[in-house]
Design a protein that fits this description.
By secondary structure, this protein is α+β, with helices and mostly antiparallel strands. The protein has one domain (about 1-160): Sulfite Oxidase, Chain A, domain 2 (Alpha-Beta Complex), CATH 3.90.420.10. It contains three helices and ten strands; from the N terminus they run H-E-E-E-E-H-E-E-H-E-E-E-E. It has helices at about 1-15, 70-75, 105-110, and strands at about 20-25, 30-35, 45-50, 60-70, 90-95, 100-105, 120-125, 125-130, 135-140, 155-160. It has a five-stranded mixed beta sheet. A hairpin with a 4-residue loop joins strand 5 (about 90-95) and strand 6.
Length: about 160
């Protein structure tokens, strides 16, 4: 019985692993990011990030991490925004294959320091990410950083409120 439970747990973890991220929604250019093409999106390497829980406890430490800024991804996709005065209605959802989702507003990404600190990460401490899927999304200036630390990222979607 214990062997079956271990096998099912392993299968569930495997099912959440993704190897690509779809960029879609209200964009002119939908595209897919994978490890083969991510280098074309100007990856950056940053240092010293603690992933912290809501009580401040350190869950993980990234001595270095390499990724692409969400702002650069969105600029590459070109958000469809015919009426610029409606920018406050636009949002970006980041979805994981296990159902976890987090949101950013257009203003948060483009009119706030947060926009310079949200990254789709594919390498941590000099090695490809494995245990949390191939891609994770982080926001390094969140306090705490854990709630918007999305593992197993599979989709970045631009939407608009009515």
């Amino acid at each position: 019985m214990l062997t079956i439970l271990a096998l099912l747990t392993t299968m569930a973890v495997t099912d959440t692993t993704t190897n690509k991220v779809a960029v879609k929604g209200l964009v002119e250019h939908s595209f897919v990011i994978n490890l083969s093409n991510i280098s074309h999106l100007k990856p950056e390497t940053r240092k010293d990030l603690n992933i912290t829980g809501s009580t401040g406890d350190i869950k993980k430490t990234f001595r270095t991490y390499k990724g692409v800024s969400l702002k650069h991804i969105l600029d590459s996709a070109k958000i469809k925004m015919p009426m610029h005065k409606e920018r406050g209605k636009y949002y970006i959802s980041v979805k994981a294959s296990d159902g976890y989702t987090t949101m950013y507003s257009w203003n948060e990404i483009y009119n706030n320091p947060t926009g310079d600190n949200v990254f789709l990460v594919f390498e941590v401490n000099g090695a490809p990410i494995k245990e949390d899927g191939q891609f994770v999304m982080i926001c390094s200036n969140d306090k705490p950083t854990g709630p918007r630390h999305v593992k197993w990222v599979e989709e970045i979607e631009v939407g608009k409120l009515p």
